[in-house]
Design goal:
Helix content is 21%, strand content 44%. It is built from 2 helices and 17 strands. The longest helix is centred in the C-terminal third of the chain and has 39 residues, at 211-249. Residues 1-19 and 205-209 have low confidence and may be disordered.
């Protein structure tokens, strides 16, 4: 019985899994992951195993005899291991993922997992689209921004698109036919914003001086002037024809 108990206890003592942690950083800022274990004076090797957005790599930091330190890395040069920590400079969205830390000494092997999230603040704006419906956009955010409207409506079309740089664009359209009132308010929420971003847009009558409307106005004016000019030209020409005939008769 005692031998069976020993066989069960030894693997538990020789391998310890620590609680996973979440690390959040803004894009472009540095990040430091710390194993937070105490291996004593017999530290042998620290290994970081990374599973990122679309890749994986390993960073190893080893202390050999005579305190000789060696390292190995198949990860980005922006990532460096120093003793029990992993430092990442100029973080990018592609650095998001799971970071597994493995610390081994003569007696134990410690494991700890981290989840790294890289935040990117979106650019926000509100306009009337070609149909005259309010359209609110949050471009280049990570994670995707949340868009809501005041007043609330069930007839809202929201689309989330992943951009080439792995950020997200969120486009939310408030259908005009469902609006009761003269204005609506777009509300954008995101972890990078201390307070939600809010902006109103008026739906009252009057011409909306957007670029497309201005171009239509210019084209209409040009065609109107040309048409009037053409009519005047025909009128003058018709008036001159009888006079020319009378002169020839004389």
């Amino acid at each position: 019985m005692s031998m069976l108990l020993l066989l069960l206890v030894v693997p538990i003592l020789s391998s310890m899994v620590l609680k996973a942690g979440m690390v959040t950083v803004r894009r472009g800022d540095p990040a430091v992951l710390q194993c937070e274990v105490d291996p004593g004076d017999t530290l042998l090797v620290v290994t970081w195993k990374l599973r990122l957005y679309d890749s994986s790599c390993v960073i190893s930091y080893k202390i050999e005899e005579d305190n000789i330190k060696t390292s190995y890395s198949s990860c980005s040069t922006r990532m460096r291991s120093d003793h029990l920590s992993l430092a990442i400079s100029n973080t990018e969205i592609s650095d998001e993922g799971t970071y597994a830390c493995e610390v081994a000494n003569d007696n134990y092997t410690f494991f700890r997992n981290f989840s790294l999230q890289v935040l990117a603040q979106p650019s926000t704006f509100l306009k009337l689209n070609n149909d005259g419906s309010p359209e609110c956009r949050a471009i280049g955010g990570n994670p995707p921004a949340e868009i809501s409207w005041i007043p609330h409506s069930d007839d809202i079309n929201t689309t989330k698109l992943e951009d080439p740089d792995r950020t997200w664009s969120v486009i939310s359209t408030f259908m005009k036919k469902r609006i009761n009132g003269t204005s609506v308010t777009c509300v954008v929420s995101h972890p990078t914003l201390r307070n939600p971003w809010k902006e109103d847009i008026s739906l009252s009558g009057g011409y909306k001086f957007r670029f497309d409307n201005i171009m239509r106005l210019i084209v209409t004016v040009i065609f109107t002037v040309l048409f009037i000019g053409f009519l005047l030209y025909l009128k003058i020409k018709c008036q001159n024809i009888p006079g020319e005939q009378k002169t020839e008769d004389r």
